[in-house]
Amino acid sequence: MNVDWKSLTFHYTETDYIVRSSCINGVWQKPYATKDKYMSIHVAATGLQYGQEVFEGLKAFRGIDGKIRLFRWEENAKRMQQSAQGLLMTPVPTDIFHEAILLALKHNIDFVPPYETGATLYFRPVLIATTPEISVGPGKDCEFIVIPTPIGPYFPNGFKGTPFIINRTIDRAAPQGTGQWKVGGNYAASFRASEVAHAMGYECMFTDAKTHRYIDECTASNFIGIKKLPSGQKEYLTPRSKAILPSITNDSLMTLAREMGIKVTRRHIRIEELADMQEAAACGTACVISPITQVIDPDKGITYDFGNKPGETLTQLYHALQDIQYGKVNDKYNWCEII
Ligand SMILES: Cc1ncc(COP(=O)(O)O)c(C=O)c1O
């Protein structure tokens, strides 16, 4: 095992083992570790035919004290169960999810990057329906896989911002569709919009698919805006929408924001309200917080500018969460499981 920690990016780096568990006729088999990264499933599996597949993403951090911390894995287990129920799949029980993650960690312990590198061990749990079927309908048998991969720091050259562009012509998810679940098909559906945005040098900001008047999500992250209220108090604004994934990072940041005396509001956010915000960001497991430098609304010819330097409140929130994840401060909410 020889990983050049400094050259890690967010791309897949192979580790020694993955972990697998099958559910056959409603009975879950004990998770096991294997070096084989290929799996054999029936060509008519509903996961392949109809995209009956959901996934998750979570990280293990090597703390300042050398200990390994697994961040809020129960929330990922819960969200994966909700995603599975959304596609009429057999949900992975919490104990099987936990056992599989711990097994994946134990068998790849040398792949947990050292604290100083800012890199982490990312886990990609995947659930795919394996029942062969051609008639359109859900399969009940499934395969649960945990794929670990070390990933580099999201900001190798310091905490920096990204420009976004609004897209009203390609929707990521239907208003009452599968956007609230981590379904593979949602991501395939977003590829085109991202490609269009990337070609122009931006990331894509999705608006609500019904009216295209409200902010939904920032590529694969939730949106946060920080606004100064007339009273001087700050407000943390984040969209309420049935079409966005309930981000665990966003939930954690909302808790920390409240603790800092910031008012937290989750509601529909009109695109024009960007003009009233002093700071804006995308948030998620990969980046924690990725500040937004500007948002272009090409249809209206408007640019909302947030400056090239991350704002004060977002910077504070970013460090507050990272300090918990790296064991630099007391984990008063018990968000980390120390392994
Ligand atoms: C569509 C989408 N929104 C938001 C998020 C952020 O969620 P979390 O903070 O749980 O990583 C993700 C990443 O998982 C995502 O894929």
Number of helices: 6
Helix content: 10-25%
Ligand inventory: pyridoxal-5'-phosphate
Kindly name the structural category.
alpha+beta
- Stretches with pLDDT under 50, minimum 5 residues: none
Overall CATH architecture of the largest domain = Alpha-Beta Barrel
Number of strands: 18
Outline, from the CA principal axes?
A: globular
Tell me the CATH superfamily of the largest domain.
D-amino Acid Aminotransferase, subunit A, domain 2
Count of distinct structural domains: 2
Rg, Å, rounded:
20 Å
Secondary-structure element pattern, one letter each: EEEHEEEHHEEEHEEEEHEEEEHE
- Beta-strand share of residues: 25-35%
The whole-number mean of residue pLDDT values reads 96
Sketch the major β-sheet.
9 strands, antiparallel
Q: N-to-C terminal Cα separation, in Å?
A: 21 Å
- The CATH topology name of the largest domain reads D-amino Acid Aminotransferase, Chain A, domain 2
Give the CATH level 1 class of the largest domain.
Alpha Beta
